[in-house]
Amino acid sequence: MKKCLSNFDLKVIALVTMTIDHIGVIFGTIFYDIMRAVGRISFPIFAFLLTEGFIHTKSFTKYFLRILALAFISELIYDYFFFDTLYYPDANNIFFTLALGLITLYLFDKSKKLVAKFCDTRIESKLILSMMYVFIIVIMGAIAGYLNFDYGVLGILIISFFYLFKDHYLLLVLSIGLATLLFDSPVQLFSLISLIFIYLYDKRLGKKCKWFFYLYYPVHILVLGLISLILA
């Protein structure tokens, strides 16, 4: 199968499927279940693009701060239009998950360099590094769950798998599929469709619309929410 999707194309697919999901949530249409299933496709693509961004960014700090700032900016809009309150502590938007995922990837990278520096044998380094990876995932997953970040432990696992198994597609599919079965509802299995689009990624950047993609999340929720208020 020919690889034909750029970074830009994947972002568009993620935004479209996410928007379909949010239309179903905010308006509660008769197609609610179908729209929610379609929406499951978006997060793994966002997680994959996050790992790509981490690998290629020139400044981790700036990248992380952009994601974190967007999380805080979006939260008020997210809480009001999804939970009808200005503050809903039992759910925090997906950009908090992505920000924590970035920290996870940063710790993976630092662990790899640390182990390479101090371990003498390949077997020893692989064993210690694997233990460090598991420890990091457990801690970050616990934080995501405790703070009620969207996707919780599963979100951290998916982001981690895209980094750890980026060169092993079959292992990636199996890992994400198993984690989804263990940590979420059956409808989340529709998220595995996203792996088809990710497989078709040809490593091209495509069109540059960075700030559009950053701002789309809070703006589209705001617009959909306002429309629902007008129609009500």
Give a summary of the structure in a few sentences.
This protein has about 230 residues and is an all-alpha fold.
Structure description:
α5 (94-118) runs antiparallel to α6 (122-146). The longest helix has 25 residues, at 94-118. The radius of gyration is 18 Å and the shape is globular. It contains ten helices and no strands. It has 232 residues and is an all-alpha fold. The model has no long low-confidence stretch (mean pLDDT 95).
Number of helices: 10
The level of helicity is over 70%
The main β sheet shows up as: none
The computed structural class is mainly alpha
One letter per element, helices H and strands E, the order comes to HHHHHHHHHH
Task: Give start-end ranges of low-pLDDT stretches.
Answer: none
Number of structural domains: 1
Radius of gyration: 18 Å
The overall pLDDT, averaged over residues, is 95
Q: Terminal Cα separation, in Å?
A: 47 Å
Beta-strand fraction estimate: under 5%
Tell how many strands the DSSP assignment holds: 0
What gross morphology would you assign? globular
Quaternary state, please? single chain
Q: What is this structure's SSE topology?
A:
Elements: H1 7-27, H2 32-39, H3 42-56, H4 60-83, H5 94-118, H6 122-146, H7 152-164, H8 169-183, H9 194-199, H10 210-231
